[in-house]
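U., I forgot to send this yesterday:
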Amino acid sequence: MLRTAAATAVLALSGPALAHDPDHRDDLHMNSVGGGDYRDYVTDHASEQSGWTYSLRTVGTAHNVMHQMMSDFARHDREERGGSAVPEFGARISGGDWTEYREALEAEAAEGEWADLVRITEVMHDRFHHMMFKAIVYDDARNERGAALDVYLRPRVEAQGDDLIPARRDLDIAHMSLEDFRGVMWETGWTNEAGETWWRLSMQDSTVFAHLLSDLTRQWMAYGAAEKSGDCAPQIGDGYDVDAAWRRFAIQVRACEEAEWRELVQVTDLARARVHEMLAYVAAYHDARD
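Result:
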């Protein structure tokens, strides 16, 4: 086992948070849009060239990388860990397949860092699709597209607003920054003596996915600073420490009166939190797998 300086420092801080039981998907309520339907909406209604529509395409690219990452997680379990719970899937695993995978692990009473990573990845995936849903709702309302949204969006979840968008401060979510995770990736000695090709690809996918989310965050902060005012507008600073700037904005935006924008920011904040939580679980499994 190679424990890097970055992993040791971050996991020492994250240890108590990682010890809690990761959320079950069944305990969370989220609206959603499928990846293909999202792509169709953007192609049909948001094909103009602008900073905003560029950001919508960034969301689509990040979604594709997310599913590639999840597929490589599954292949690592099946082919390198010898796991038997992974369902059959084609080029890449779907969200439904992943839920089946998580349920199969729970039926086996699987415990440990890998089972925890599978569970939190499901929550992260679904919150990312919730963010995609909110991006379409905002785009249609803000730009007066007049789109027939029911053609694209999945049936709305029957839940109260606080259940759909819980307060970030009330959630027990571990956190690992992109820079710390990248340090784990870069400092790892990939001799591949264990033949862990899929795990190496999984970690690289995780880095690229988190990097794309960071890029998207910068795009939406730049858009908000240019297009919004008051509590609806972020203070972007020098653009380097996007995590700290975004968290300040996500707190501030609670007072924004533009509901579609406020809710998009809040759901994006929840999606970001779950992605960074997933990074902490990836690092914990990477550190413990030997």
